[in-house]
Design goal:
Pfam families: CS, Nudc_N. This is NudC domain-containing protein 3. GO terms for molecular function: unfolded protein binding. The protein has about 375 residues and is of the alpha+beta class. It contains 9 helices and 10 strands. The longest helix is centred in the first third of the chain and has 43 residues. The chain is flat. The chain starts with 8 loop residues before the first helix and ends with a strand.
């Protein structure tokens, strides 16, 4: 595999845009292997120097497909786990805010039983992970939620000033239409307009510009992407060109990271990378605004950098281990160190099998041996 898997994206994107669909694109790639390599040549004898033994080339393709299929499945799993973790954190915060009065007797530290003290220590074992993330100037999940909430509140205030409405003014029909838009991948967190659909995440916008049935090839479409302007032209049946979209967009985009493909006879799919992470109220400046208070503001875990993802995965792993009554990551590291020293010269446990039940590791990593 290439050290930089994205280094050929520009060349491959040009082919994909010209072909319009994934199937013809794959056909082009395999056609190249057929014409210019020995990939499809079958070795008949052991002395043959070109080609592959029967079935090996197909197996190679299957292995590569399964590799990326597994990567996609892992991305989906991480996103779902992050979503569940965020929901649990939100529910926990909501529960704490509604408990105005204590419903149980408050016990001081001196009154706690050994069992309760151990339980409290276990409950704080996730704290060092967040603490280390803060020391590394990384956003913890709680920081991220607060940042997202603050950013969203700011946009909501702006939206309220522009529209002069609030949550209570939405009538049942508007609610029904909004739910239909959210359920449709083409309009998720976006809207449907006369000539296009649009959807968005915090980092990207997917714009799908409708085209007539006779538009079947990339050469029948011209797309121009600028920092704050998009134009889409199509070729009519009389070979003349006309604008389908030609307008300024509401916020700047990174043109080098944005791309388009054609869905023949349906739409031109334009993927726009936002220059600034924020929720858009509309794509084009003269388009009616959507209510960003009513969209799904969750953020996929895959949008975070590798280091942040690793820390969050560690927190989720620790949470699962805690629920199962198993050692968490910081405990496992300490266990490994103690295992090496357990039977060392001078150890009081020399000659005895390693027994984790004889000690416990608190949240700060200190080991306490039971008497």
């Amino acid at each position: 595999m290439a050290s930089n898997p994205e280094q050929y994206d520009s060349a491959l994107l040009g082919i994909l845009q010209n072909e319009g669909k994934v199937a013809p694109f794959i056909d082009v790639v395999l056609g190249f292997l057929y014409r210019r390599t020995d990939f499809f040549r079958i070795m008949k004898k052991d002395t043959d120097k070109l080609g592959f033994p029967p079935g090996v080339a197909l197996k190679l393709l299957e292995n590569i497909f399964k590799k990326y299929e597994n990567l996609a499945a892992q991305d989906y799993k991480r996103t779902e786990e992050m979503k569940n973790l965020r929901e649990k954190m939100t529910e926990s915060a909501s529960k704490e805010s509604t408990d105005a009065e204590p419903k149980v007797k408050v016990i001081t530290d001196t009154e706690k039983t050994p069992k309760e003290s151990k339980s409290n220590e276990e409950g704080s074992k996730d704290e060092p992970v967040e603490k280390r993330m803060k020391e590394m100037h990384m956003e913890t999940p709680s920081d991220y939620q607060m940042k997202e909430s603050t950013s969203q509140d700011k946009q909501n205030t702006e939206s309220s000033k522009d529209k002069g409405d609030n949550d209570e003014t939405e009538d049942p029909e508007q609610t029904r239409l909004r739910r239909e838009l959210q359920a449709n991948p083409l309009t998720y967190n976006g809207a449907e307009r006369e000539s296009y659909y649009w959807s968005q995440t915090i980092t990207e916008v997917d714009l799908r510009v409708k085209v007539p049935k006779h538009i079947g090839k990339g050469k029948q479409v011209k797309v121009e992407l600028k920092k704050k302007h998009i134009s889409v032209l199509i070729q009519d049946t009389d070979n003349s060109w006309r604008d389908v979209v030609n307008n300024d967009i509401s916020w700047e985009i990174n043109t080098e990271e944005s791309m388009w493909t054609l869905n023949p006879g349906e739409f031109v799919h334009i993927n726009l990378e936002k220059k600034q992470e924020r929720w858009w109220e509309h794509v084009f400046v003269d388009e009616p605004k959507i209510n960003t208070r009513k969209i799904d503001c969750s953020r996929p875990m895959t949008d975070l950098d590798d280091e942040a993802q690793a820390k969050i995965e560690e927190m989720m792993y620790n949470q699962r281990q805690k629920q199962l009554g198993l050692p968490q990551s910081h405990e496992l590291k300490t266990h490994e160190m103690l295992r090496k020293a357990w039977d060392a010269e001078g150890s009081p446990f020399k000659g005895q099998p390693f027994d984790p039940s004889k000690f416990n590791v608190d949240a700060s990593g200190i080991v306490n041996f039971d008497n």
